[in-house]
Amino acid sequence: MAYWLFKSEPSTWSWDEQVAKGDAGEEWDGVRNYQARNYMRQMKVGDRGFFYHSQKDKEIVGTVEVVAEAHPDSTTDDARWECVDVKAIMPLKTPVSLERVKQEPRLAEMVLVKNSRLSVQPVRDAEWELICAMGGISP
């Protein structure tokens, strides 16, 4: 299993909206960055990810699971853009802010710290376990 981080502006797509989609999940659509798209092409059903609220809050608020592998993004007719489908798994008991992530030396090499603008990014196993612990959930 691989781990990922999915960023969304809460005003565009929030954790509560993701939860409301239930087990069917929802397309992680609208990504128009080649590197982020390529990461989605690597994802497999069952991979897990963090759901990150960007812009104002800048915090990891929950976990999601990939329920459909890369397929054409329904929000465009441009064949270059693909997306995966994800469903909500659980909220973090305590959201983990970007500030807390940056303060943790063991997360200094995390993509979220090094390239915080990338909307879909990989998360290493040790990073996953540490952030789950920081958020009060079991990995």
Describe the structure in your own words.
- There is one protein chain.
- The protein is an alpha+beta fold and 139 residues long.
- The chain has a single domain (3-134), classed as ph1033 like domains (ph1033 like fold, Roll).
- 25% of the residues lie in helices and 35% in strands.
- The chain contains five helices and six strands.
- The protein has a six-stranded mixed β-sheet with strand order 2-5-4-3-1-6.
- A hairpin with a 5-residue loop joins β3 and β4.
- The chain is globular and about 40 Å long.
- The mean pLDDT is 97.
What is the number of strand segments? 6
When the domains are counted, the total is: 1
CATH homologous superfamily designation = ph1033 like domains
Strand content: 25-35%
At the fold tier of CATH, the topology name is ph1033 like fold
Low-confidence stretches: none
Quote the average pLDDT: 97
Determine the number of helices (DSSP H or I, runs of at least 4 residues). 5
What distance separates the N and C termini? 12 Å
Order of helices and strands: EHEHEEEHHEH
Based on CA atoms alone, the radius of gyration comes out at 14 Å
Strand order of the largest sheet: 2-5-4-3-1-6
- Counting helices, strands and paired strands, the structural category is alpha+beta
Q: What is the level-2 CATH architecture name?
A: Roll
Which CATH class is shown? Alpha Beta
General form: globular
